[in-house]
């Protein structure tokens, strides 16, 4: 829930400084968590750290839309999320190996926090905020002050998000994204159901991240080309294929016992990571296309900090409860397979509204340009 507040703060003050604080310098809280002396301290420090990181995500996505035009947004989002996933998976695998070391988790948290702080300082030194709407071709002849004047946020404009059908459908689609559960319970599944030890099971986190990275970086270029050739439905169709593809791979990976070697599971986790990695290069540009520039920060705050976080929390809760009652294998069947098939079918509802809403945004920007 920190996202909307941090986005509001960024729009009222300085996006660059706010981003540097909450995405980077906020890593200090992870270091404090590593120094915690009891569970209560650890929980408080981690909650504060996660609130800051979650709040920075909407600002980052808003900046992508201001830095890059529609032709390149998919691959840019893919590069960013691919690299961060690869780094995160590497950290996850390292922490898994640190489980063999006394207090190894402390070293992992401190290292992650220190790395985040380095990125925060780099943002302060090297990054330049282009201003809201800078990458829109319709507004290219306007000065930054003119774009800012046109892009002032009002309550009536915020309310327009709720009337944008494709945006509302995208929020519901995020609530159906059961594949998020694999990141939380994937290693637990391999330990409890397939009987690997923790260190061996944790080995799948790195190939998962590498698969995510490969798809985010390389497949995003393909999905951008599909969008350029079919701007009315290319991204929607690609999103639908990704959801269905994940369900198929998850079924094979979790509903059959492939023996006592971790190698084949590494392959499955690589594929599942790849099919997840396609998503940011599609759902982020879809939202950017149907929302005007000044509302994108708010839109991503709603999408990432509310709907996606709520979905993740619900799936984690259900994963734990269902895992205890019917077992993780059957839980994965319902959430990773059946629900993801429902997700893919639901995406069908986006085809017509997306074409209409994205055209409406282009018309709105053209109208603003004519006023100057």
Structure report:
- The chain has 18 helices and no strands.
- The protein has a single domain, classed as Up-down Bundle (Growth Hormone, Chain: A).
- 78% of the residues lie in helices and 0% in strands.
- With 372 residues, it is mostly helical.
- Helix 2 runs antiparallel to helix 4 and helix 3 packs antiparallel against helix 6.
Total of DSSP H or I helical runs spanning 4+ residues = 18
Helix content: over 70%
- Name of the level-1 CATH class: Mainly Alpha
What is the averaged pLDDT score?
A: 88
Uncertain ranges: none
Q: Tell me the Rg in angstroms.
A: 21 Å
CATH fold name: Growth Hormone, Chain: A
Which structural class do you get from the secondary structure elements?
Answer: mainly alpha
Domains, number: 1
Q: How would a textbook summarize the main sheet?
A: none
Level-2 CATH architecture: Up-down Bundle
Transmembrane segments: 17-36, 42-64, 76-95, 107-127, 175-193, 199-220, 232-252, 258-278, 298-319, 331-351
InterPro entries: MFS, MFS_dom, MFS_spinster-like, MFS_trans_sf
Membrane topology: Multi-pass membrane protein
Domain Major facilitator superfamily (MFS) profile: 1-355
């Amino acid at each position: 829930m920190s996202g909307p507040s941090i986005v509001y703060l960024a729009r009222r003050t300085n996006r660059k400084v706010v981003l540097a604080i909450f995405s980077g310098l906020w890593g200090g809280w992870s270091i404090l968590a590593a120094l915690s002396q009891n569970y209560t301290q650890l929980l408080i420090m981690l909650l504060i750290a996660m609130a800051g990181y979650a709040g920075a995500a909407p600002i980052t996505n808003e900046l992508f839309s201001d830095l890059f035009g529609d032709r390149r947004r998919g691959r840019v989002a893919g590069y960013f999320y691919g690299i961060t996933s690869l780094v995160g998976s590497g950290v996850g695998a390292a922490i898994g190996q640190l489980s063999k070391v006394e207090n190894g988790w402390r070293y992992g948290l401190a290292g992650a926090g220190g790395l985040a702080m380095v990125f925060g300082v780099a943002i302060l030194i090297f990054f330049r905020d282009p201003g809201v709407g800078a990458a829109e071709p319709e507004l290219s002849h306007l000065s930054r002050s003119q774009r800012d004047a046109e892009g002032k946020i009002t309550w009536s404009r915020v309310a327009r998000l709720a009337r944008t059908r494709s945006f509302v459908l995208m929020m519901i689609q995020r609530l159906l994204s059961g594949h998020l559960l694999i990141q939380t319970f994937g290693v637990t599944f391999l330990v409890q159901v397939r009987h690997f030890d923790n260190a061996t099971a944790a080995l799948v986190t790195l190939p998962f991240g590498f698969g995510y990275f490969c798809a985010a970086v390389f497949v995003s270029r393909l999905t951008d080309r599909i969008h350029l050739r079919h701007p009315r439905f290319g991204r929607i169709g690609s999103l639908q294929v990704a959801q269905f593809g994940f369900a198929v791979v998850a079924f094979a990976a979790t509903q059959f016992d492939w023996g006592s070697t971790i190698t084949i599971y590494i392959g499955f986790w690589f594929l599942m990571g790849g099919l997840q990695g396609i998503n940011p290069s599609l759902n982020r540009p879809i939202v950017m296309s149907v929302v005007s520039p000044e509302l994108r920060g708010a839109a991503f705050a709603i999408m990432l900090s509310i709907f996606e976080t709520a979905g993740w929390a619900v799936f984690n809760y259900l994963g734990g409860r269902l895992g205890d009652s019917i077992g993780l294998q059957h839980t994965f069947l319902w959430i990773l397979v059946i629900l993801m098939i429902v997700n893919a079918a639901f995406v069908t509802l986006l085809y017509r509204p997306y074409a209409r809403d994205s055209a409406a945004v282009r018309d709105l920007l053209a109208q603003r340009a004519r006023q100057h």
